[in-house]
Amino acid sequence: MIKKIIFNINSIPGVKERAMDQNRTLRNLGPGESALVIAIDGGRMATMRLEDLGILPGVEISVLANAAGPLLVSVGESRVIVERGIADKVRVI
Asked: Whose CA is closest to 37, among 8, 3, 67?
């Protein structure tokens, strides 16, 4: 069963302008780019993994490295590694 968590972006002032492409995923971000997580499109295990990392709808994240292999992402004061397949399940604006 796929669990979809969605965050209402309209509740955050100034975010509507960034919401042009809601099909953008964490995997598409380059180093130095920041984004707001708006949804997680994944199964129970993927969603639990992302929750454990602190990646939830409404959270601002920054990509530190996105080369071959997993992504290095800043979530608040933490730095976490996100597998590429899992990063595809994180929708951002």
From this structure: 8
Structure tokens at 37: 């997580």
The pLDDT value given to residue 23: 81
Return the CATH number of the domain spanning residue range 2-92: 2.30.30.90
> Quick one: which of 48, 50, 44 has its CA closest to 1?
44
Residue 38 corresponds to which tokens in the numbers above? 């708006």
- Whose CA is closest to 26, among 3, 2, 1, 49? 49
Q: Kindly state the tokens that stand for 15.
A: 């975010």
Q: Which residue reads 């309209």 in tokens?
A: 10
Helix (H, G, I), strand (E, B) or coil at 39: strand
Cα 3 vs. chain centroid, distance in angstroms? 15
Query: What is the SS3 assignment for 55?
Result: coil
Residue 77 backbone zone (phi > 0: left; psi -120 to 50: alpha; other: beta): alpha
Counting as low any pLDDT under 50, the low residues of the chain are: none
